[in-house]
Write a structure and sequence with these properties.
- With 288 residues, the protein is an alpha/beta fold.
- The protein is 27% helix and 21% strand.
Length: 288
Amino acid sequence: MSEWTIGVVGGSGLYEVDALEDAQWVEVDTPWGRPSDALLTGRIAGVKFVFLPRHGRGHRTPPSHVNARANVDALKRAGCTDLIAISAVGSLREELAPGRFVVVDQFIDRTFAREKSFFGPGMVAHVSMADPVCPRLSALAAAAAEAAGADVARGGTYLAMEGPQFSSRAESELYRQWGCGVIGMTAMPEAKLAREAELPYALVGMVTDYDCWRTGEEAVEVSAIIAQLMANAETARRLIVELAKALPAEREASPIDTALDTAVITTPAARDPALLAKLDAVCRRLLA
């Protein structure tokens, strides 16, 4: 049993959390470069939260340039026990209308221009992504979203595209045929890196638009998305408060806390000291 420290990665439209008590911005350096921004730390209802705006305050970093390795590493260094991502998404299903929240349970990764692992030559690891989110954390996030007044869909597949352009109509139709529910540009490799860092991860998708698959629908435009983002972001802030109020007093261990026990394949004698030094936060438990 331990204390919760919830890392929150805020997506488009969510750049700070007003409810934090004793809030302060903290600069964190990582071996993987600089994270998207400083970390905003504080407490809500006695629970420690560490907030990171994924695109930086002012939304200055495009999806392909988000340093997900630095972001996850920084949150791990800050003592986070669990990560919740709150992300703007497009809908690929009629029933997932703009304004709905979707607590994702699967991903299809179509990104191609990003660093996707902390590991590499000299320290090889293969984590399982069969079940890419933490069911306990996802259930808590869904209940908190409902308590905040959101219309919540529990479960759905997130298609991660490279961007920064939106989909073509042909692509949008293809992803629907694959069974995807929502589409976005930032959940991958973030979810994979969270698993490598042994951080239980949940993603709450805030639907802003219908992508471009609907017959007769106007193409996606940023101006329309921003209007929906503002409404969604206020609900997301309430979600964080409701989550803090609903968390059990003590955090029970999760199987994800020890994901690397069955993932690291490189023998100790063959491990690269330089890479191990960079993994001091990610692999802290194994290297202690």
